Amino acid sequence: MPSPEFRMPVSGAARETLAELASRAAALRAACGGNLLECFGLVPDPRDPRGIRHSLACVLALCTAAVLCGNASFEDVAAWAHHAPPEVLAACGARRGALGILVAPHPDTTERIFRGLGAAALAHHAGAYLALRQQGGPVTFPLAAPGWLPAVAVDGKAVRGAAGPDGKIPYLLAAATHGTGTVLAEHMIGPKTNEVPEFGPLLLDLNEYHPLAGHVITADAGHTVKAHATLICEEILAHYVLTVKLNTPALYRELDELDWEKVPRLVTEERGHGRRERRTIQVTDAPEHVRKRFPHARQVALVERYVTRTVRVKKGKRWVRRQRKSAVAVFIITSLSAREADPEHIAAYVRGHWTIENKVHWVRDVTFREDSSRVRTGPRPRIMATLRNLAMGLIRQAGYRKIAATIRRIKHDTGLLLAILGLKNPS
After folding, report:
1. Which terminus of the chain has a smaller tally of CB atoms within 10 A, N or C?
2. What is this structure's pTM?
3. Assigned domain for 264 exists
4. 239: helix, coil or strand?
5. How many CB atoms lie within 10 A of CB 270?
6. Is 353 helix (H, G, I), strand (E, B) or coil?
7. Residue 380 to residue 113: CA distance in whole angstroms
8. Among the residues of 285-413, which ranges form H helices?
9. Contact predicate 162/381, CB 8 Å
């Protein structure tokens, strides 16, 4: 989506709120400095200051470099950092020994740091660093005409290879940009709870260093609750595009009873890789009874998707091609009015929400093999997830779209590695 231009708010109260958000963002921008080492320098070091030989920023930068080189397990990351090239050690601020030779941290040092490091603090500063590198500034509403707004998707993922203190699989709730899939914030879902209570704190924390005014927040049906809609529109001055399913039966029933036959239909089709997809969207103003039920609702939509896949199945001793068809229909509710978003825009926001699944969760599972990781307890699973998010964000912000292919290049190109890290060899 093209970068939207800055628009000042209409009301004085909104203007004061935006000024506060801009001030906080500027303060954090100054605190994070201009490179990754300065950002890591803000993370509290769990070690006793006496006897520290390798700075925390150096160790974390080397571990990030190791992940960028495709190392998926903690053992491989620690081993790569211990045998890092001299150019990388120098750029990451490694210390020099008595003979002036660069000294890399031992794997035991990296393990001790990861065992005691505050995973939440690391995730906060890593997200802030990526957020501050994003293009564009705050965007406010109302808009004069329909146009693209920056969008953020919120969704959770189970870290299946890990186990929490209660023995259950921990979940991470993340906020990622549409399009690039850059993870800007992430919260751990605590025991005996779910994603819903963490939705508000996640967005409020992100709003502290990345003002969300005028952004579009997308989420799945689990987050289609009144409190979230109120927070998005009234506290962070943003918009929402939410899915409505049977977990909100009264709202679902009211949308299902609308006369969709009279609503114009926008149709798009795509073909490729043995797949044909036909999407339709019907958008209409939210009726008064829907507005009363759900805060700030302005438009509602019906999205239908028809997919035909060509697959190979075994029939006797031969493989034959067969077509498999599927159909899905969902309702959408949004605070964007017809003046602010056409059906084309709403369809793009709905589809863009899948960025967090396809470009974040899928890449962590397949490229970085997160679900098969043997790092199971303590803060290490979340630390590794944060480093993977950071690596993906750095690669995409450097202009590379294919994560696996770029990692293969980075392995054999130290110059590219340092360029993506944003660090320079001082020698």
Report:
1. C
2. 0.86
3. no
4. strand
5. 11
6. coil
7. 10
8. 288-293, 343-352, 355, 362-366, 380-397, 403-411
9. yes
Q: Quick one: tokens of 174?
A: 């993340």
Q: Which domain holds residue 111?
A: 29-116+382-421
Alpha-carbon span 138 to 9, nearest angstrom? 11
185-199, 271-285, 286-300, 412-426, range with the lowest pLDDT: 185-199
The amino acid at 234:
E
In sequence order, what are the residues at sequence separation of 6 or more whose Cβ sits closer than 8 angstroms to the Cβ of residue 315? none
Cα distance between residue 375 and residue 361, in whole Å: 17
Q: Any residues with CB less than 8 A from the CB of 405 and at least 6 apart, and which? A: none
Q: Which residues lie closer than 8 Å to 275 by C-beta, 6 or more apart? A: 307, 308, 309, 310
Residue 102: strand, helix, or coil: strand
Asked if residue 205 is part of any domain, the answer here is no
Judging by DSSP bridges, how do beta strands 171-177 and 266-272 pair with one another?
Answer: unpaired
Structural domains counted in the chain: 1
Residue bearing tokens 């210390």: 95
Mean pLDDT of the region 57-82: 94
> What is the pLDDT, as a whole number, of residue 19?
63
Q: Is residue 148 part of a domain?
A: no
Residue 373 resides in a domain: no
Burial 191-229 (b: 16+ CB within 10 A, else e): eeeebbebbbebbebbbbbbbbbbbbbbbbbbbbbeebb
pLDDT value at position 142?
A: 59
Asked if residues 47 and 348 have their Cβ atoms less than 8 Å apart, the reply is: no
